Amino acid sequence: MGRRMQNRFILILLTFVVLVQDGLSGTPVVDSLLNLGHQANRRANYETALRYYLLARQEADSLKNAGYKTATTFFIADIYRATLKRPEALRFIRENLPQNPGPDEIEPVCKLLNLIASVHYEEFISNPTFGLDSALFYASRATSYIREKQNKKALGQNYMILGAIYANLLQYDQALDYLRQAEELYLETGRTDDIPNILNNITTVYMNQSQYEEGIEVAKRSLEMATVSGVKIYQMVASANLVQLYERQGKYREAFNYLRMYKDLQKAILDENMMAQVSKLREQHESEKTETENKALRAELHSQTLFFYSAVTVISLGLIVILVLLIAYREKSKAERKLKEQKLEIERYNELMFTLNVEIAQANESSKEKARLLDETNRVKDRLFSLISHDLRGPVAALQSSLSLVADNSFRPEEQAGLIEELRIQVQSTADLLNNLLYWSSGQMQGLKRSPEPVSIKELLQENGLLFKTQARRKEIHLALNYPESPLTAETDRTMMNLAIRNLTSNAMKFTSSGGSVTLSAEKKETGILIRVADTGLGMNQDQISRLFLNEAPASTPGTQNERGLGLGLMMVKQFVELNGGTLSVASEPGHGTSFSILLPAAES
Predict the structure, then answer these.
(1) Who wins on pLDDT, 144 or 603?
(2) What pLDDT does 565 receive?
(3) Half-sphere exposure of residue 605, counting CA atoms within 13 Å on the CB side?
(4) CA 75, CA 63: separation in Å to the nearest integer?
(5) Closest Cα partner for 563 from 487, 490, 468?
(6) Quick one: which of 169, 426, 484, 489 has the most CB atoms within 10 Å?
(7) Confidence at residue 8, expressed as pLDDT on a 0 to 100 scale
(8) Which of 216, 215, 239, 218 is nearest to 227 (CA)?
(9) Closest to 534 in 3D by CA, of 520, 514, 513
(10) What are phi and psi of 534, to 5 degrees?
(11) 519 DSSP β-pair partners
(12) How confident is the model at residue 417 (pLDDT cuts 50, 70, 90)?
């Protein structure tokens, strides 16, 4: 009989015993089956737990008991969640979720809604491309039910889930509010062993907001409570958070001390798991050994009894004894193999301990590397703020000029409609520019990823012409667009190239005096699509041209009307153009203006 058949026989036998003890029917049977399922679940024996829960569900269906049906739905779906079968868990809940729950179903329905939110949140954690909208929807829906039921234990769990969701949505104030309320409810309901989990989430929020001192205080409190309760996994998370917090403050000695604590906790958990496994193997070996000895004793007693009745029986018993000895020998061989496997496990454990010691020795070097990465991240952040200041000032100034004209009643009523439409276009363009800047900053943090597509270059020139129309009128600059009637289509990322043209046009407007001109032109060449932004402004000498694209932030040069800039726009333009397979060149002469040229690959027709 195989191990699977043995498990099924034991399951049927235990179920039969439960049914006999409970009178063969009624709700006591469901309670007994659920208790057996809970016991298997606590031992992480999910297959056996699921069988008991399914049997309980069948009994609940036969009794037509809505409360038990909803409760068993939660336990079965939670087993699917624990075994990472998340789609099955969500489908099972939705198929069995009561639409109009009765009084006895409100509490289990709240737990089901919390479970749906938890499954969606775990799906997001394992694959961040999934959104958090579903998790937030079900968690919020559960809140109304739980408040109606006034179940503080369920409400505390619900607030903890909402806190984690809002933290991932970067809404930190709301996340902290829910997490602190969850902590109060956990304290009030006596669930102090799980409070370190809430504190670890609060620590993460503070860390993401760069509030390191507050994060250290909460993390230490979490570590202290987890140590008192003896939950090592919460201690590990708290110590890992302290390592990161002290590293970000540059306090590497404190970070290293908590790193050692983290490694010690990791080793302790590994030791406990290893000892539990060894103990389980030893108990199994002793059980098999005792069973083998009992079989041998029974066989010997049986043979002696039969010896007195007939010689034929003695011969038969002799054969039985030989068979039993063969079985005993096979069982002994199996036990020896298992002992060898245990020895190999212990050797692997020793190798793991050696690896951990090596990791601790390398921790200091790792801390230095993390400090370097942190400095690099800060530099990217500084470039982001500089770019926002550089690229938003022009459109906002244009909006201010147009609004001033409206406020001064400088237009006739019949002209105001056109001005309002122009203002709408400028606002939309400014919003698009802000989105582009955020897109670029995200690329700087996570790596720029272009999305090439056939893009109409004429449309890009027209959009930028509309954007800078008001500014050109204010500075009395002639803004011209020059392109052929035939289509001009380049294979490029539209967002990147629009931002590149916008930066070049902004610079041209900045360095061109009143009475001058700025021309946006495009034409098709044999090598691709050529885009040119030319002005009749101040111009540059060769030394200034050679310093334009250095990988640093040069000093700002004021414009013809003392406009300010930060000198980072051209580096961004060069990066976008080259990322899209193009080239950027510049021609300029002091007093005779400047011309920037972008050559892009043409789209396949």
Answers:
(1) 603
(2) 43
(3) 5
(4) 18
(5) 468
(6) 426
(7) 46
(8) 239
(9) 520
(10) -120, 145
(11) 480, 534
(12) low
The answer to whether 274 and 245 are in contact (CB under 8 A) is no
Q: What is the DSSP letter of 602?
A: B
Between CA 218 and CA 198 the distance in angstroms is 10
Architecture of domain 382-600: 2-Layer Sandwich (3.30)
Of 60, 98, 94, 64, nearest to 80 (Cα)?
A: 94
Q: Is 430 exposed, middle or buried (0-12, 13-18, 19+ CB in 10 A)?
A: middle
Kindly write down the DSSP assignment for every residue of 166-178, as one continuous string.
Answer: HHHTT-HHHHHHH
What tokens were used for 314? 């003695």
pLDDT of residue 7: 47
Give me 542's structure tokens: 């060769």
**Domain range 14-247, CATH class:** mainly alpha
Tens digits of residue pLDDT in 528-558 = 999 999 999 999 999 888 888 775 544 456 5
CA nearest 565: which of 496, 506, 505, 502?
506
Q: Does the pTM exceed 0.90?
A: no
Q: Indicate the Cα dihedral angle 579, 380, 250, 232, nearest 10°.
A: -70
The conformational region for residue 84 under phi > 0 = left, psi -120 to 50 = alpha, else beta, is left
pLDDT digits (tens, 9 = 90+) for 299-334: 565 666 566 566 667 677 777 878 778 887 787 777
Residue 357 Cα to chain centre, angstroms: 30
Coil vs helix vs strand at 490: strand
**Structural domain spans, the chain:** 14-247, 382-600
The answer, yes or no, to whether residue 442 has pLDDT greater than 80, is: no
State the average pLDDT over residues 361-375: 69
Report how far Cα 232 is from the mean position of its chain's Cα atoms. 24
Confidence bin at 133 (pLDDT 50/70/90): confident
Calculate the average pLDDT of the chain.
78
Helices (H) and strands (E) in the chain, counts: 20, 7
CA distance 527 to 572: 23
